[in-house]
Fold this protein.
Amino acid sequence: MNKNLFATALTYPAPSANYRGESEENRMVMQKVTDGRFEFPIISPEAMRNALREMLAGYGLPCNRKRLHNEEQLAVKFLEYPDAKKFADDFFFGYLLALDKKGKKSLAEAKNKDHPYKRDSVLRMNLAKGLSPYRHDTILTQSPVNVDSPWKNAATSALLHRETAVIAYQYPFALNLNDVFTGPGLDEENRKKWLAALLCAIAEMSGVAGNHARSLFQMAPASIVIRLTERLVPGYDSYGFKVDDKGNVTLPEIVDGITNGDYPGEEFYLGGTLVKQMGNDDKKGLEEKGVHLLRMADKALAAVSLEVTEIDFLQHPE
């Protein structure tokens, strides 16, 4: 299938203290990037990919890598050498084996001399960026000292200074479907099942960026735009979601472009809050151009899944 899938997802807004950088004494700092005059909170694609990996394993797909949470530093464990023909996470997210001469010999003995040392990620992602700037909001909480306990955390109680934002994040992702459906290894049925499972995981993505005890933040899309095209680039701003003066979610560049014939409407799937809040005139105009409009973001992803894999994951929970 010589098509590319380009999409941008927008989460629901919620209080967030996720994806922290290095702490400054008792101050927990959210990571940010500067865009123009303002700083925007971010969440890395690595954090989202790790969540997707754990979700695919939870769905029962064979996965090679798992995060070890009871170590003194960030740590992972591989069941065996990476193998895109065998493991869904190696297939979608790629890998790199940094091996010396001895390590390469061991790999050749375990697999074969032609086993690839690296594989590019089939799923491409970029930073999740806050829809609005960080406003320097903070929350103060207190960590109590352990008293008369078998272990002691500190000599005194600590006051914790935590940067927080009430925010929605938008993040782009892309899949080259030719990479998914061609090449040696998996049979076509498994390729379709694995891709449908990946789109399902994106539709209900959670557990991203840590701090879950304090921040219940879902990364599942509240709104989404998807383009299925033979073009190699999406052709629009991948961070194009806006919020108007009334608080409504808009996608001005794409809506204007489809309406004026810049983009072929039949290539686009729009779903979620964006569609629910859209005016009737805009809806009618987009439908006349062939755009697929769905009131739920997961249904937009399921419709794309049905188009490219013949599996509607909402009807195939396995």
